[in-house]
Amino acid sequence: MTTNLGWLGTGRMGAALAGRLIDAGEDVSVWNRTTAKTGPLVARGARATGQIADLGGCDIVFITVSGPRDLEEVVYGEHGLLSGKSKPALVVDCSTVSASASARVRAAAEAAGVDFLAAPVSGNPHMVAAGGACIVASGPAESFRRAKPYLDVMAKVAVHAGEAEQSRLVKLCHNLYLGIMVQALVEVTTLAEKGGTDRAAFLEFLGGTVLASEWVRRRSVDLVERDWTPTFTTELLRKDFDLGLEAARSLEVPMPVGATVYQLIQSAVGIGLRDADFLSLYDQQARGAGLAVEPEE
Amino acid sequence: MTTNLGWLGTGRMGAALAGRLIDAGEDVSVWNRTTAKTGPLVARGARATGQIADLGGCDIVFITVSGPRDLEEVVYGEHGLLSGKSKPALVVDCSTVSASASARVRAAAEAAGVDFLAAPVSGNPHMVAAGGACIVASGPAESFRRAKPYLDVMAKVAVHAGEAEQSRLVKLCHNLYLGIMVQALVEVTTLAEKGGTDRAAFLEFLGGTVLASEWVRRRSVDLVERDWTPTFTTELLRKDFDLGLEAARSLEVPMPVGATVYQLIQSAVGIGLRDADFLSLYDQQARGAGLAVEPEE
Amino acid sequence: MTTNLGWLGTGRMGAALAGRLIDAGEDVSVWNRTTAKTGPLVARGARATGQIADLGGCDIVFITVSGPRDLEEVVYGEHGLLSGKSKPALVVDCSTVSASASARVRAAAEAAGVDFLAAPVSGNPHMVAAGGACIVASGPAESFRRAKPYLDVMAKVAVHAGEAEQSRLVKLCHNLYLGIMVQALVEVTTLAEKGGTDRAAFLEFLGGTVLASEWVRRRSVDLVERDWTPTFTTELLRKDFDLGLEAARSLEVPMPVGATVYQLIQSAVGIGLRDADFLSLYDQQARGAGLAVEPEE
Amino acid sequence: MTTNLGWLGTGRMGAALAGRLIDAGEDVSVWNRTTAKTGPLVARGARATGQIADLGGCDIVFITVSGPRDLEEVVYGEHGLLSGKSKPALVVDCSTVSASASARVRAAAEAAGVDFLAAPVSGNPHMVAAGGACIVASGPAESFRRAKPYLDVMAKVAVHAGEAEQSRLVKLCHNLYLGIMVQALVEVTTLAEKGGTDRAAFLEFLGGTVLASEWVRRRSVDLVERDWTPTFTTELLRKDFDLGLEAARSLEVPMPVGATVYQLIQSAVGIGLRDADFLSLYDQQARGAGLAVEPEE
């Protein structure tokens, strides 16, 4: 028996994920606020629907919207997914929202007899389209088993992190790890640099070793050129650390290095790097090392 | 005109590097204290030599020995490379030694009219044999240019870090980065774990993302199983931090996160993890998080 | 013209502060939930009152209650100070409450035409009775000027910290400073100790120098004897750091050492020191230093 | 039977300490490189001597010289204390020197049959003259017992820290504690300040509480006025931390807060505060907090 899939929200990320299901021959109904955006997916074989509630007839509905308010509206708002006569058996939310918003939506879904998986994604739309996404999901184990075949089409890794909102916490862990990595990188880069090695040579070497992540390799050129055009600002990184360290406090987990980086981020905001890319932590570090940092052009 | 190459010290790392030159058709003379170890290389096409000084007839001599004393002995000891009538134009040391030992050997070589490249390697012998080595070299730019074609056969990345002992510092930076990333890893892992996600699931997810290095992926299984069989002990990591932070102090580079990790390593030694693999920083972190850590079997 | 003073809440701290005013010949009306507690003050010359609202006839009413709920109730509760026909011109709250509770009470007072000073006290009742209190007050400058002569009778130091809730923040700063001092103390104590100096000798020396605060001198005996009978638990110190670092985050002030201590407190909670006196940070430090710490009896 | 005392080196600190012995009626022979400096002490009752070796006839000789080289010279140099026919039974060095220099001098003294106490002093000459010195001594317990009556005349506190060079380590602990407390002070001061409390009010309050040391009270005016006229530079504080953290490393004692402060000192050097008073850590902290710090005049 065929499983009917629905996809709610076909922005860049949604289109990349849904596109993989469609290309794999799945039966996917799609909805988007701006209907035109569903066009390319329909051309690849998806069915267009006019109302969110129309997706109620699907067995599993995936969601990618831009934040907690949109999520709450499309799920339990007046014209949301739970407002129709038919309801899906399972909703899988691939958006990035807080654990508390996630818990509210889960409660609403469960009250309506609908299972809920919180399934945030790591990867940008380009990587995702190429099959490089990583998905961490939490919710009932049975729901995860049901969704797994589709998650495996959408992503190269799909893991089950727990029965409740653990996947949201895992995403925060991912972000904390990134922030620490950046500070680690700028510390050793300035050390090599002050010793007389230019940044490009150092980063080429480090980038070749098994210690370097793909993220480090990609961003090395920006670090070499001190190009702080924001991909993600220092202030946004601070927001991730706010949430991550709040979770750590709540769970009573000490984060000695995480907390040290948090204060360095705070200080970077104070010295004027708030709206620059968070790689600009380099500038703060370089000043402390007495390296002349030319003002950005 | 052919360049004659020499290889002094054919232990596991030397054999892996020299083997790549031999397989590429280079003319390589080899010497090892235990002559039998050169057998496999000779079988692949290398020439055996009886005395270190016999390598003096080569244009470039590469060295891989196990530490600073051996290096000093094989270069300027009584029967060392500089003791013969003929001397090579260039010596390339691929061993891991301190900047000060490196500087002494360089001075001795230069006094004898021989150029010197300090060229430590990142990678284990298995990776190196497969072409995955990364080499960071320092010494005269002209020497680097001369050695570059051979370094490119030996390694996938070979960079020039400066005219003096910078390559030794870069290697220390590499090790500091590793230590910081281990602590980062155990902090976020315990956070996810205390939130209810098992280590294996968390590490599978993180390992799939662009934030994970190959090193993290490889060691995840040990972290999942709390297998602290030493690959590199906590005490040895402390030694690397001793050297790295001493260099940072000397160059007046602040290392806020590096120093925090150094103290955590010190504390891990204090609570009994001295001789365990340095991944056992997990145990210290887990105790601070109030997670029950079963004693190792 | 005489100023009539009122004192609302005559527990240990209130009695110590009010007692100083009474002994100085001021006209003080007192109220306490448990009327009997006002007896000793009445014996010294205070007037007893039956209802909180009776204090409305005073020019200035001081308050010392045990927390934000009590404060809100005695000020703007049904039978509170603002419920009577007469209202004081100025209320001076000497309790320890959060900035947000303080702001609510201030707003209620001002809405009723009553000025409000937030004036928390540093010092224990014994010290306070002997004139050793320190008071930090915030609210309108004019109100501070009006209260100053009485604050000077009550305390050896009384400063004006600002026009709003600054005094609450200053109290948090005081607590953060204390927590850092304790960790600093246990670090250097274990260092001296591992070098072969016994704790008592070290602390006697340090206690004699200009670096030691009276607090350090007083608590040295507990540190020598590892007497962790709680005067203030590790968990309560964490609560102070929660509030202090939350304020720092909100004001965008980096706290590199404060945050490091916060994580050490968190870790101490994790290893089982939650309910011990916060001087037990010593035990965590001693373990990290590999010193044998005998279990407490 | 009278004990004859000698005092070698009567600079400001030596004169303050020796003066107390003389005023107490002790029989004190004095020597100083610049003989004129002994004049005031002779006027108070000391005996002048022409040669260092003349002090060999004393029972106990105290030393206050300006560093390790002077100490070594006056003790075991060609014309030093050990060069004469008579030798004292006990030498008590009140200078500030490293543990290693102290150990060398001790060894030389003991080889000559002379006991040695390492007895550094905390306090400036003004305080010392008024009886406010604190002395920490190490060496044989019997030597300490012998010197104790005189140390008690010289200082308000005199403790025995161990049988070897522990007193030198205790002095380093004292300096580490000072550095940490300065950073603690500037963190909480900027927090209060950014919240709207002026520095003078905050420091007046804190200075009144039991948390404040005499040192904090004294230096508050400099902090209020941002007067960084050096009493002790940032670079000198770094030197103390170099030694203190080196000792901690050697003894395997983690110093999480000490190490954090060390890096902040390093960073302060990097941003230009090297030669300013170490209270200028305030400026670094204020910048990180986004407070406008007016350039010093």
Throw out a few tags for this protein.
homotetramer, 297 residues, alpha/beta, 3-stranded mixed beta sheet, 12 helices, elongated
SSE topology:
Four copies of one chain form a homotetramer.
Chain A: E1 4-8, H1 12-23, E2 27-31, H2 39-44, E3 47-48, E4 60-63, H3 68-76, E5 90-93, H4 99-111, E6 115-118, E7 121-122, H5 125-129, E8 134-138, H6 141-154, E9 157-162, H7 166-194, H8 199-208, H9 214-225, H10 234-251, H11 256-273, H12 281-288
Parallel strand pairs in A: 1-2, 1-4, 2-3, 4-5, 5-6, 8-9
Antiparallel strand pairs in A: 7-8
Question: How would you characterize this protein structure?
Answer:
Four copies of one chain form a homotetramer. The longest helix of chain A has 29 residues. A six-stranded parallel β-sheet of chain A has the order 3-2-1-4-5-6, sandwiched between helices. Chain A is 52% helix and 12% strand. The model of chain A has no long low-confidence stretch (mean pLDDT 96). By secondary structure, the first copy, chain A, is of the alpha/beta class. At the C-D interface, β8, β9, α7, α8 and α9 of C face β8, β9, α7, α8 and α9 of D.
What's the pLDDT, averaged over the residues of chain A? 96
| Overall outline of chain A | elongated
Q: Using DSSP, what is the number of strands of chain A?
A: 9
What would you report as the Rg of chain A, rounded to the nearest angstrom?
22 Å
Assembly form of the protein: homotetramer
Percent of residues of chain A in beta strands?
5-15%
Low-confidence segments of chain A, ≥5 residues, pLDDT <50? none
Biggest sheet architecture of chain A: 6 strands, parallel
Distance between the termini of chain A: 61 Å
| Overall helicity of chain A | 40-55%
The interface involving the most residues is between:
C-D, 75 and 75 residues
Q: What is the ordering of alpha helices and beta strands of chain A?
A: EHEHEEHEHEEHEHEHHHHHH
The class by helix and strand makeup of chain A works out as alpha/beta
Tally of contiguous helical segments of chain A = 12
Strand order of the main beta sheet of chain A, please?
3-2-1-4-5-6
